[in-house]
Amino acid sequence: MMRSGLSIYESGDAALRVTAATGDRELDWRLVHELARHVNGTVIPGILGCIPTYDALLIEFDPVETSHDLLEPFLEHVIADLDPTANPFREAKEFAVPVLYGGEMGPDLADVAAQQGLTPDAVIELHQAHPYLIRCLGAPGGSPMADGPAFPLPVSRLASPRVSVPQGAVAVAGRQATIAPAPAPGGWALLGRTPLRMMNLEREPLVPYQPGDRLTFHSISEREFDVLLGTEMKALND
Amino acid sequence: MTDALTIRVGGSAVVTDLGRTRGSQFGLPVNGALDQYSARVANILVGNRSADPLIEIIALDLEFVTSVDILFAVTGATMSVFVNEVSQPQWEPVSARAGDVIALRDMSSGLRTYLAVHGSFDVPFLLGSCAPDTVVGFGTRLTSGTKLAVNQEVAPISNPYFDAALYNLHVQRPPLGDIVRIDITDGPDRADFGLTGGRLFAGPYTVGANSNHIGLRLSGALPERQSCGELLSRGVPVGAIEAPPGNELLVLHRGRGVTAGYPVLAVVTTTSLNLLAQVRPGQQLAFRRVEVARATELARIQRDSLAALNARVRNVFISLGAKNVINRNLIGTTRALL
User: Does B192 touch chain A (CB under 8 A)?
Assistant: First the structure.
């Protein structure tokens, strides 16, 4: 463990993991993203990519071009110089996400309500209560990963994951929340679905949001869902 | 009309490359050829750059007709290779003339065969790679009738010294079949499994039928997580070994989602990931623990062997008077490009 609360772990011959445990979750999150920004902004032969998440950063590299022996001293140096007050994110963009809750679109709404000891309406209300800060982009395909709603309990993952979860699925698990930009297998509980098209392979970046941006959810009717289906997701303050 | 290969039989083949390394920052898996060694060899044998698009064939036959003279090479899983029904060698460059029918049949060991054509193919790219991504729905899949544009014609190459064998490159082939030995290093969350982590080495595992490019599912002795709290999603490396709820061990490969909420018990080494790409459902494998320094050394030895092969292939093409085959991008190349 280094002065800043960051630690480096080997993750095989082609990756390493840096974790932050400062005791301040917000700081942990900013530090791993700030570190990723530094690594991405420096030309280091052999580094293939960075995956910053909530409290960890995975750095992938080509073991022929570089190695743990070379990278760890470099990272220790960068970490020692990290500014804990730095903001690694752009000026936050806001996204309003329409959701059709329950029924076919949110097949786990009733189960989540039962597990939490709440009514389905109370689950929806909590799900919409606060804006969601996007913590990182994750699987599948650029999912905006956020802290979960203020439910009384962590949400159980499904005992048997679904073979395919549709594009736009609005999901929660543990203390996390997300939306699936692409259809994929998944073990998270589905509360509803947004009709918005989040991912566009024709342009870069593929998704309009980044870590540090915010999402808010609001309810829509089936008819509104049909009207909005396929509309491209855009920031309110673009 | 563009010179092209026209697919006549395309059971389960795609155009791929070494993967989408720029994807991880956007939450996309790297994907690309699962057996990177065999894919690199195929491209080297035809004078391409290692990262050029090539065909990956899974299990089933492939047959195509070419409208132009081509130089191609087949590596990876063992198949019977024919040009107009005349048997051809694998792991060597092969010439075919315009109008010829090329067939790859009856895969007998291994699971993934690679076919590279000199000049490579003109296919769509996403974030710098043509590798298919089944989750976001990107990629070039080869089915009956697909036309694949070839970027460069190559006149047939023959040996001026009567009928002596043309190449004899003696490429090192990966071991296929029997119980495959897979090298792994300790993962960052090894401690979460306590003593049960040692079960990985207790005996062979059997590869499950629901294994694919995302991950292999193995049955055998299961390590058990000793901690229990919800884990936040974290980036997971290709090769990560996890023990999710259920009765199978999960070994992630290049199609894996970039984040997951399970502890990483161990990680398959770079060189053993290539072997894992060739293991069939029902086959057995056994893990061997190695240090990261040893795994790194093995990765470098393998890449050095590719650089040496590249040099041999250049010399052979020069001696055969086929200078046009030598990719000018490869002259003065470093092993970084291979």
Answer: no
Whether the CB-CB separation of B239 and B251 falls below 8 Å is answered with: yes
Q: What's the first-to-final CA gap in chain A, in angstroms?
A: 41
SS3 category, A155: strand
Rounded to whole angstroms, the Cα distance separating A225 from A101 reads 10
Instruction: Write down the domain spans for chain A.
Output: 6-80, 94-228
Q: Where do the H-state alpha helices sit in chain B? A: 36-45, 270-276, 292-319
Tell me, yes or no, whether B164 and B199 share the same domain.
no
What ipTM describes this predicted complex?
Answer: 0.91
Question: What is the longest distance spanned by two Cα atoms in chain B?
Answer: 72
Percentage of residues of chain A with pLDDT beyond 90? 81
Contact of B188 with chain A, judged by CB distance below 8 Å, is answered with yes
Q: How far apart are CA B186 and CA A178, in angstroms?
A: 31
Using DSSP, state whether A178 is helix, strand or coil. Answer: strand
Q: How many residues does chain A have?
A: 238
| Partner-chain contact B257 A12, CB within 8 Å | no
- For residue A89, give both structure tokens: 């994110």
Mean pLDDT confidence for A150-178: 91
- Same domain as B191, residue B153: no
Average pLDDT over residues B158-178: 69
pLDDT at B188 over 90: yes
In chain B, the number of structural domains is: 2
Put simply, whether A17 touches B (Cβ < 8 Å) is yes
Q: Which tens digits make up the pLDDT trace of B76-118?
A: 999 999 999 999 999 999 999 999 999 999 999 999 999 999 9
Any domain includes B16 = yes
Q: Work out the minimum CA distance from A141 to partner chain B, whole angstroms.
A: 5
Q: Is pLDDT above 50 for B68? A: yes
Q: Are residues B80 and B194 in the same domain?
A: no
Residue A121 confidence (pLDDT) above 80 = yes
Q: Residue B265's domain spans which residues?
A: 180-290
Q: Any chain A CB within 8 A of the CB of B259?
A: yes
CATH of A94-228 given 2.60.300.12, 2.120.10.30, 3.40.50.12780, 2.40.100.10? 2.40.100.10
Contact B138 A56 (CB under 8 A): no
The average confidence (pLDDT) of chain A is: 93
- Of residues B137, B235, B293, nearest to A58 (C-beta): B235
Backbone angles phi, psi at B285, to 5 degrees: -140, 155
pLDDT digits (tens, 9 = 90+) for B210-228: 999 999 999 999 999 998 7
Out of B136, B235, B295, the one facing A51 most closely (by C-beta) is B235
Question: Is B335 an 8 Å CB contact of chain A?
Answer: yes
Q: Residue B166 has what pLDDT?
A: 65
A122 and B6 in contact (C-beta within 8 Å)?
no
Spell out which residues of chain A touch residue B230, defining contact as CB-CB under 8 Å: 154, 174-175
Proportion of chain A above pLDDT 70, given as a percent: 99
Residues of chain B neighbouring A155 (CB-CB closer than 8 A): none
A51 touches chain B (CB under 8 A): yes
B24 with A51: Cβ contact below 8 A = yes
CATH 3.30.1360.40 matches A6-80: yes
Can you say how many angstroms the Cα of residue B97 is from the centroid of all Cα atoms in its chain?
Answer: 27
